[in-house]
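Open question from group meeting: does this chain pack into something compact, or does most of it stay loose? Before anyone orders reagents, we agreed to write out a predicted structure and look at it together. Recording both the input and the output here so the notebook holds the full record.
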Amino acid sequence: MKNFEKNSYKAGKKCCLSELGLNQKGKIISVFHPNFSLRMRLLDMGLTKNVIVTITKLSPFGNPMSIMFRNYELVMRKQDLKNIMVEVIK
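Structure tokens returned:
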């Protein structure tokens, strides 16, 4: 089982938002999703380029994940977070 408490990526690395560890921060690079309406919904909620995102909570099996950005918290499925590319900050 993966240890979610441990930050597994160093600053500057680019990865999917779903790969970040608990309390790890990343800056959004791009948002892609095969479902166009879901992509537009994510952009409308504020998941846009250069926004700082923090992984705040994980369920026991890692799905769903809770993220914090723009002073509010959002819970999303891990497969939807795989479509958001981030640059690790810390």
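Observations to bring back to the group:
The longest strand covers residues 25-31.
Helices lie at 36-44, 78-81.
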